[in-house]
């Protein structure tokens, strides 16, 4: 009985005071409630950062450790003594610069082809009217559904018949198909407001001008994201280059670095980690650079509407 | 104008479609005989597909240079065919579908049989005898590992066995004799003494886990208890003796005497485990990593040590001229001098009987008594059970079952299921081809 009486009173009291005092108190109370959330937020952020950063940190410090210091308990969180020997090992024990050059060429050409093909085909499928475009789009989507592990054998047969084993074109051309980019960019182009495209057309913009001056600037963030994903994927591609390449004349870094692992004995992880760090750097630099572009793209998009 | 641009874009979209097509589906390859089609043409270099077992690329290249000097007119091309034996098999499989076969390919104890069964590796006996190769000089156990239906399908190359590695200072501290255990029961008696001295955070014994060849090492335990994985094509996991071995392993795991690990040699080298079972191929690496004196011994049991490692094979689908040259090369690769060069650089075992009598090897063994253990153990080895090395997916299947056992599942149940599963694969994939 008494609970029934007391309950509502307590329930209402804070509400009423809250409403009345809102001009002074709202800030204080959000501040008060906010502190708990802020702390929780920071704890969460620190946890996430640790999950992401500790393995990276471990790779980095291991690359500077001497061999006996890698497997020890308690773990050594700072290399002492630090050594650059692992980096020397990587660049001398395997033809590192050859692998690096191959990676660079394969990634650059494949990514450029993929991006150009992706944008152009998506543009055609989204904004140009021509007979059979639904069918073309369906074919592209169907291609997206086929996992590349399945096509590897038939691709191998075709490329081997062409005599392209252990050549750049043998590695690059089968990788240059771009269903994902077509799909992603087409949806991005379709999401653009039709009025702007109409207006540009009325102003006399031809298809290429429309693409360059109107459609692409508005799609910058998606394009940058797509490019970044493509570059990272190509840089890390393993299965296909491994099957196609025979030696350091065409093999990219991920294939080359496996030569450092001892496949029936004790792997010396120092040089492997040093190689990993070196392989990571170019992508990291590219990411930092493109991230700025991504933000630029976002703001450009905001201004337009 | 509008029409022209539209047509232009039609073309572009078409081009995109074509690119997608090449990337996604492509055509099927030639018939398998295409690889043999070059019999009349000039013979190219001998392509040697290797994963460079034991980081041996330099040594392999050295042997190749010597071969080219000894055989003017023949060239050998060394190809990086993968990071492990499974990847070499994968690459070879792709080549089988697409033509352009190599001349010589590295095949491990578990990968060769499937290729032999499907007639993709050439039987070597006739080729070897017409090339005048002294077959008697190959270590019998190692050579006969590649025997199937009366033919041999590879020559032993990078061959290993497991070894019992122990930490000598810990052995002394525990008051044990400076030797390995005679059998697994003696080992069990020792564990209490060892447990007392290893210290906290360290373990007495480590083994590789089920995805890292525990199935290879456990074969020794199964044999020394009188069991086996299979008898020819009949799986014998549920044999009471094999089950007893499984229970022994399970008890060790339950008592926390043994820890399972991806790379036990790393923990052992860091002094975190008193003893391990590990391949002879790890000897060099462990010696480099360890800051204490390392001891090696035969595996526990009596003549219960499995062989392992890889051989070199010749594909069936290449011309006779290429086969002849390939055999010339693999004979050179595994001749007494080169097997010494190769094994001293890696830790594998010489595959020729006469190699041990050469001065270069005598000196080496005098300086490296641990390498001697492996060679002395060779006469006590035994070829592996069919269920592991011949039945497709055998190693992985047994490894998974052993993982379940050490996690506490009932041994009899797990092994009975393993029996049934193995039998099913044999009936479906092997029996029809025998």
Write up this protein.
The complex is a heterodimer of chains A (305) and B (434). Chain A has 305 residues and is mainly α. Chain A has 13 helices and no strands. Chain A has helices at residues 2-62, 85-93, 96-127, 133-145, 148-161, 168-175, 179-191, 194-202, 207-218, 220-236, 239-244, 253-257, 269-304. Chain A is flat and about 70 Å long. The model of chain A is unreliable at 1-23 (pLDDT under 50). Chain B is of the alpha/beta class and 434 residues long. Chain B is 48% helix and 15% strand. In chain B, α9 (214-224) crosses α10 (240-254). Chain B is globular. Chain B starts with a helix and ends with a helix. The relative contact order of chain B is 0.16. Residues 1-41 of chain B have low confidence and may be disordered.
- Tell me the β content of chain A: under 5%
How far do the termini of chain A sit from each other?
A: 60 Å
Radius of gyration of chain A: 28 Å
Tell me the strand order in the biggest sheet of chain B.
2-1-3-15-6
Summarize the entry for a quick read:
By secondary structure, chain A is mainly α. Chain A is built from 13 helices and no strands.
């Amino acid at each position: 009985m008494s609970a029934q009486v007391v309950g509502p009173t307590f329930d209402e009291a804070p509400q009423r005071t809250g409403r009345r005092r809102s001009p002074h108190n709202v800030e204080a109370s959000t501040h008060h409630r906010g502190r708990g959330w802020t702390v929780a937020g920071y704890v969460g952020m620190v946890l996430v950062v640790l999950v992401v950063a500790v393995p990276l940190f471990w790779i980095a410090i291991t690359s500077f450790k001497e061999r006996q210091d890698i497997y020890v308990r308690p773990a050594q969180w700072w290399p002492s003594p630090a050594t650059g020997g692992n980096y020397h090992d990587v660049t001398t024990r395997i033809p590192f610069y050859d692998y690096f050059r191959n990676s660079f060429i394969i990634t650059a050409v494949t990514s450029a082809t993929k991006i150009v093909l992706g944008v152009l085909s998506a543009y055609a499928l989204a904004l140009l009217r021509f007979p059979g475009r639904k069918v073309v789009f369906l074919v592209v989507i169907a291609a997206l559904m086929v996992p590349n592990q399945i096509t590897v054998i038939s691709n191998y047969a075709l490329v081997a018949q062409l005599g392209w084993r252990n050549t750049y074109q043998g590695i690059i051309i089968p990788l240059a198909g771009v269903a994902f980019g077509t799909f992603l960019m087409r949806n991005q182009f379709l999401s653009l407001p039709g009025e702007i495209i109409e207006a540009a057309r009325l102003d006399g913009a031809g298809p290429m001008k429309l693409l360059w001056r109107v459609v692409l600037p508005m799609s910058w963030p998606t394009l940058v994201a797509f490019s970044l994903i493509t570059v990272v994927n190509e840089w890390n591609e393993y299965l296909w280059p491994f099957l196609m390449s025979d030696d350091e004349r065409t093999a990219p870094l991920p294939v080359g670095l496996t030569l450092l692992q001892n496949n029936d004995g004790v792997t010396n992880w120092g040089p492997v980690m040093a190689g990993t760090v070196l392989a990571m750097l170019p992508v990291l630099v590219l990411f930092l650079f493109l991230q700025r572009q991504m933000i630029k793209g976002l703001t450009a998009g905001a201004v337009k509407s | 104008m509008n029409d022209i641009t539209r047509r232009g874009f039609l073309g572009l979209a078409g081009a995109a479609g074509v690119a997608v097509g090449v990337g996604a589906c492509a055509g099927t390859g030639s018939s398998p005989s295409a690889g043999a089609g070059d019999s009349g043409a000039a013979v190219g270099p001998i392509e040697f597909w290797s994963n460079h077992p034991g980081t041996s690329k330099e040594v392999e290249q050295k042997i190749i240079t010597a071969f080219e000097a000894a055989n003017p007119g023949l060239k050998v091309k060394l190809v990086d065919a993968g990071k492990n034996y499974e990847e070499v098999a994968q690459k070879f499989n792709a080549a089988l579908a697409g033509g352009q076969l190599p001349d010589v390919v590295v095949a491990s104890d578990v990968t060769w049989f499937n290729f032999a069964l499907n007639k993709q590796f050439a039987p070597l006996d006739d080729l070897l005898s017409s090339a005048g190769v002294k077959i008697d000089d190959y270590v019998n156990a190692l050579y006969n590992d590649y025997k199937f239906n009366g033919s041999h399908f590879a020559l032993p190359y990078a061959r290993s066995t497991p070894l019992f590695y122990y930490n000598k200072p810990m052995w002394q501290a525990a008051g044990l004799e400076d030797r390995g255990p005679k059998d697994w029961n003696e080992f069990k008696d020792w564990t209490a003494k060892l447990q007392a001295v290893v210290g906290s955070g360290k373990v007495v014994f480590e083994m590789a886990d089920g995805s890292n060849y525990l199935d290879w090492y456990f074969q020794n335990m199964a044999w020394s208890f009188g069991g086996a994985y299979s008898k020819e094509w009949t799986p014998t996991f549920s044999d009471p003796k094999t089950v007893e071995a499984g229970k022994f392993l399970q008890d060790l795991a339950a008592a926390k005497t043994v820890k399972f690990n991806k790379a036990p040699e790393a923990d052992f080298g860091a002094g975190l485990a008193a003893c391990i079972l590990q391949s002879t191929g790890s000897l060099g690496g462990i010696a480099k990593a360890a800051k204490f004196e390392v001891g090696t011994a035969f595996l526990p049991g009596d003549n219960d040590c499995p062989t392992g490692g890889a051989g070199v094979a010749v594909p069936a689908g290449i011309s006779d001229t290429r086969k002849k040259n390939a055999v010339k090369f693999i004979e050179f690769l595994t001749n007494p001098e080169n097997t010494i060069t190769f094994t001293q650089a890696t830790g594998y075992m010489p595959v020729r009987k006469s190699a041990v009598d050469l001065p270069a090897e005598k000196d080496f063994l005098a300086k490296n008594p641990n390498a001697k253990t492996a060679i002395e153990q060779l006469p006590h080895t035994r070829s592996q059970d069919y269920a592991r090395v011949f039945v497709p997916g055998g190693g992985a299947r047994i490894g998974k079952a052993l993982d379940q056992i050490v996690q506490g599942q009932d041994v009899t149940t797990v092994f009975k299921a393993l029996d049934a599963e193995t039998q099913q694969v044999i009936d479906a994939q092997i029996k029809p081809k025998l």
